Amino acid sequence: MRREIFAGSAAAAVLLLTAGCGLAEKPPGQGNAVQPAGDSKKIGSVYGADGGDGAYGSGSGADPAYGDGGSGADPAGGAAKNGPAGQLKVAELPELGAAVTDSEGFTLYRFDKDTPKPPKSACEGDCATAWPAVAADDVTAGEGIDAGLLGSVARADGTRQLTLAGWPVYRYAKDAKPGDALGEGVGGTWHALGADGKPAAAAKAPAQGAGEEPGAGAGGGAELSVARNPMLGGILADAEGRTLYRFDKDSAWPMKIGCLDACLDTWKPAKPVDKSKLSGIAAELVGSVKRPDGSEQLTIDCWPAYTFTGDKEPGDITGHNKQGLWFAMTDKGKKAKAAH
Questions:
Q1: Where is this region: Disordered (predicted)?
Q2: Which of 66, 146, 197, 253 registers the highest number of CB atoms within 10 A of its CB?
Q3: Where are the domains of the chain?
Q4: Element (H, E) at 193
């Protein structure tokens, strides 16, 4: 009798776990709606609505599009970053595909805020410290590079910067060694450079149309993609390049929602996405859940996903580690961790 009862209980547990997010503890009368995790009004400032500098957690004050952490320091030493590019090459970079490098193998980049026709750089001042312009002098086209696409543009300081298909070319100060591509996706506007002048990742985006370039941080038209952040590594971003977060007062198993009422003024539930428009994340981890108000929210491995109103630009991570409860999400739904 005891063995039969135990077997029946185990089978019931399996059914609950495989039924999908939010079904492990269904509140009476709410169907598939999830259960609120306590009284949200008692949590107070954990929502980040205090309006002070601590609401953002960046600590730098630097323009996030620059990715310089506010220091302007070059961790790999400045000489290689400002030297001549030599013979340009095409190299295969992990997760990006074919990208243009200089003769030493350092990844070269383009900036979405620049223009190719006519060529013009929008990266000056502090931006140029984090993203050194590649000089147009002593540059030749190696295998895979069309010499006819090479050109130059005059910068504000009078120097001439290399262009490829009209796009001004840069290095990234935080790339410490050949093959690094830490600048990919920074601010949602910086991309490793493809041999045709388009972002290198564009050639790998399955949803990309012919001649179309990806939007800022959108992973080439994807509604959900993995963006590379210099501090946190791969983190999830929505179609507009906004970082997605998870909340420690939510729960995945059983599904419970801890962000309600005043919390929603600061943290916005992410909308469900089309699973055919994903980039860099397994479709089986992507789902949705019905919130107590009846709206649908995106989930990653059963964790509800949010955007932060304190993030002002694509690629911002100002909500990460907010009050020690909010964290940028990885492609597995885990908390992103700063690289040491």
A1: 59-83
A2: 66
A3: 16-62+233-328, 78-182
A4: none
